[in-house]
Design the sequence.
C-alpha cells in the first residue's frame, strides 16, 4: 500500500513515516518545512537536535534499504499538491500537515489568521484533490481531543445520539474548542464530514490526545533519526516542559490549580493507531471518528508523576503554581470514550512505563541545549 504522509517532517509525521516504512508500506513525505521556519521566528529549538530532512531520509535508507520519497511544498498551493499526488498515486493520505499549537494561534491576529488559513485551506485542498482524482483513497486526518472542550457529560467518539421533543437522531458531538487552533480543527472536521456525505469520500478523523515521548523503534536506531522534544511556551506540552524543568532544577510550572484534565498517549501508540486506521479503512461515504488516547491525567497529577520519577534519578523537583495564561476551566468533569482503536487491536503503552526512558532520560541527556528564557509562558488568552 502506498501512503503519503503530509507533514512528515514534524513530530508525529516523522515517527509515523518511519514506522510505516519499516512495516513494509511504500511511503512518501510531503512537507513545506514551515515548522522549522516557525522555530526560527520564535527563536526556539527543540531540545533534541534535528537534522535536515534530506539527511534524515538518506540515513534511514542507508540503515534499512527502504526509500521514502520527498515532496517539498505547501498544500495551500493546489497545483503543487495535485502534481505530487499524481506522481505518487497514494492509496492512503495521512494528514499531519497543520499548525498544531494552541498558544501559537493565540499570539495575535496574524498568527490566528495564519493558523486558520494554513489548516482549513490546506485541508480543503486535499478534499478537492481526492474528489477530482483520488476518490478511492482513504484520508486519515489528525484531529484533536481539544475539539470537544470539557463538557459536563461523557465525550463519545465523534457522534452522540440525542432524543429531543420525542424525536431521536445521531449527530456530530457538540464542539467547544479552546483556541483558534482548536477552532481550525473543528472546521476541518465539519468540512471532511460534508465531503464524505456529498462526494462519497472515505475518511477517518483521529481525535488525538496530547502525545508524549521521543522514542519509537525507528527513531531510536540512530541519532540522525531522533524525534523532536519541544519544551518552550508555544510548542511545548506541559509534560515536556515539566521533564525539562526537572532536569535543569527549575520548579515545575503548573498553570492555575492544575485540575485541567486531558487525554494522553505515547508516540508509539500514535504510529500504531495510524496503521490500524489505514489497515481498516472507512467505507465510501463514511466519516469515522476515533478518540485516539490511552490515559487521562490532570496537569497537577502529571507534575506529581514527574516529581516522583525525578526523585528516582536523584533530582530534587519542586512544583510551582503560576497564574493561568489560558482561559479554561481548571476544575471540571472529563470522561472520554476510546474504544474504537482498542477494538481494532491497539495495545497501549502507559506513561508510567515510559516517563523515564522516553522523556526524563532525554531531558537529562540534552539539558545543555535548554534555553531557560523559553521556560515560562509568553502567550496569554486574556484580553489586555
Sequence:
Amino acid at each position: 500500500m502506498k501512503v503519503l504522509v503530509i507533514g512528515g517532517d514534524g513530530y508525529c509525521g516523522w515517527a509515523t513515516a518511519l514506522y510505516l516504512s519499516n512495516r513494509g508500506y511504500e511511503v512518501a513525505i510531503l512537507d513545506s518545512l514551515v515548522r522549522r521556519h516557525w522555530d526560527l521566528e520564535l527563536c526556539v529549538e527543540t531540545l533534541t537536535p534535528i537534522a535536515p530532512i534530506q539527511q534524515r531520509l538518506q540515513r534511514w535508507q542507508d540503515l534499512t534499504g527502504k526509500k521514502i520519497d520527498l515532496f517539498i511544498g505547501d498544500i495551500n498551493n493546489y497545483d503543487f499538491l495535485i502534481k505530487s499526488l499524481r506522481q505518487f498515486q497514494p492509496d492512503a493520505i495521512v494528514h499531519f500537515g497543520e499548525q498544531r499549537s494552541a498558544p501559537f494561534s493565540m499570539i495575535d491576529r496574524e498568527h490566528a489568521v495564519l493558523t486558520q488559513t494554513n489548516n482549513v485551506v490546506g485541508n480543503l485542498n486535499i478534499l478537492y484533490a481526492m474528489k477530482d482524482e483520488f476518490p478511492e483513497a482513504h484520508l486519515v486526518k489528525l484531529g484533536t481531543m481539544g475539539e470537544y472542550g470539557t463538557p459536563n457529560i461523557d465525550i463519545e467518539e465523534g457522534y452522540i445520539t440525542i432524543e429531543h421533543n420525542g424525536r431521536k437522531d445521531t449527530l456530530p458531538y457538540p464542539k467547544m474548542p479552546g483556541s483558534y487552533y482548536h477552532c481550525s480543527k473543528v472546521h476541518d472536521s465539519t468540512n471532511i464530514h460534508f465531503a464524505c456525505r456529498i462526494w462519497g469520500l472515505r475518511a477517518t478523523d483521529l481525535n488525538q490526545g496530547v502525545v508524549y515521548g521521543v522514542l519509537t523503534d525507528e527513531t531510536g536506531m540512530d541519532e540522525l533519526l531522533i524525534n523532536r522534544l519541544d519544551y518552550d511556551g508555544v510548542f511545548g506540552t506541559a509534560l515536556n516542559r515539566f521533564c525539562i524543568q526537572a532536569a535543569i532544577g527549575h520548579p515545575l510550572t503548573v498553570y492555575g490549580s492544575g485540575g485541567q484534565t486531558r487525554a494522553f498517549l505515547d508516540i508509539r501508540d500514535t504510529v500504531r493507531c495510524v496503521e490500524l486506521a489505514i489497515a481498516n479503512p472507512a467505507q465510501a461515504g463514511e466519516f469515522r471518528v476515533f478518540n485516539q488516547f490511552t490515559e487521562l491525567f490532570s496537569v497537577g497529577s502529571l507534575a506529581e508523576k514527574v516529581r516522583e520519577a525525578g526523585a528516582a534519578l536523584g533530582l530534587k523537583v519542586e512544583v510551582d503554581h503560576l497564574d493561568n495564561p489560558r482561559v479554561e476551566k481548571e476544575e471540571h468533569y472529563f470522561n472520554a470514550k476510546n474504544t474504537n482503536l482498542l477494538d481494532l487491536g491497539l495495545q497501549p503503552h502507559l506513561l508510567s512505563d515510559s516517563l523515564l526512558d522516553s522523556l526524563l532520560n532525554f531531558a537529562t541527556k540534552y539539558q545543555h541545549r535548554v534555553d531557560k528564557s523559553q521556560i515560562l509562558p509568553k502567550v496569554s488568552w486574556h484580553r489586555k
User: Anything to note?
Assistant: Residues 342 and 348 are 8 Å apart (CA to CA).
